[in-house]
Amino acid sequence: MEIFQSWFGSQMSFTLMLQIILDVGLIILLFLLLGRRSRPLDGAEELIQTLEKILEETTAITTEFDANLHERKMLLQNILAKLDDRLNEAEKVCKRLEGAQSVAVVNNPAPLAPPKGNDHDKVFKLANKGLAAEAIAKRLQKPLGEVELILNLKKMYSSR
After folding, report:
1. Which residues form a coiled coil (predicted)?
2. Contact 158/135 with Cβ under 8 angstroms?
């Protein structure tokens, strides 16, 4: 007490003394609690081992997954390369066919044949009898434009 009186002077109240005692008690209690926590818990070691096993398994799975992804990536690249080669071959064949087709069209143009059909024959017969396109359209109940088209195609074909 004399130490406290020398620090605080001659006037030391009861509440100040109580406050100092409570502070010292709390500090001691704090050290006791910290001392207990530093000791390992009963299941803590087992928990740590379990977590380490889980971490090792996760690492192994991750490594295996990464290798699997790398393998799939390589397979996809091979497939894409093969598809690119096939596409290039198909384009070459297509160009050769287009060239051969254009040469064939220039050398041997296909003759235009008038379409054969029941209605077309009727239009031709009525036109040969001397009927006009409007009369043929009314008689066959066809649009005038269709009858005129059929007759014009026949004229184009016969002029060749």
Report:
1. 41-100
2. no
Tokens 């192994």 sit on residue: 60
Structure tokens at 129: 């009898």
Alpha helices in the chain (DSSP H): 2-8, 14-38, 44-107, 118-128, 133-140, 144-158
For 109-137, give one letter per residue: b (16+ CB within 10 A) or e: eeeeeeeeeeebebbeebbeeebebeebb
Residue 1 per-residue DSSP state: -
Give the count of beta carbons closer than 10 Å to the beta carbon of residue 154.
16
First to last CA, the chain: 137
User: Which residues have C-beta within 8 Å of that of residue 115, sequence separation ≥ 6?
Assistant: 153
* CA dist list (Å): 128 to 88, 119, 138: 56, 14, 16
Which residue ranges in the chain fall short of pLDDT 50?
none
pTM over 0.85: no
Residue among 108, 130, 119 nearest 153 (CA):
119
Question: Percent of the chain at pLDDT above 70?
Answer: 80
